Amino acid sequence: MRTLLFLALTLIASFSLTACGWIGPYQRPLHHGHQFEVEQIERLQPGMSPTQVVQILGTPLLPSERTDAELILSYPLDLGDRQTEIWQLTFVNEQLQEFDLPESFE
Length: 106
Prior knowledge:
Layout: H1 2-23, H2 38-42, H3 50-57, E1 65-66, E2 70-78, E3 84-92, E4 95-98
Antiparallel strand pairs: 1-2, 2-3, 3-4
């Protein structure tokens, strides 16, 4: 009788310890890219300098592309569901020219 009770307790203990592996640990969602507020985007205006844009939006995660008269700041946008898209802001002669949001972000 004692061996049966010991065997039953051992089986219960082993099943309860292995059950932790069936559930799986909690995985926190990771966001890759910037998440902008509408107010930040509304503050952008043509003619702004790169410094002013960085003060509003923050430092881009991707390196900027620069030619003699053109600068492109690239911001990856977090669209949820593990989707990201690149938003490029173009500066000509240190003035913001193009900053259209991708259609999937709007």
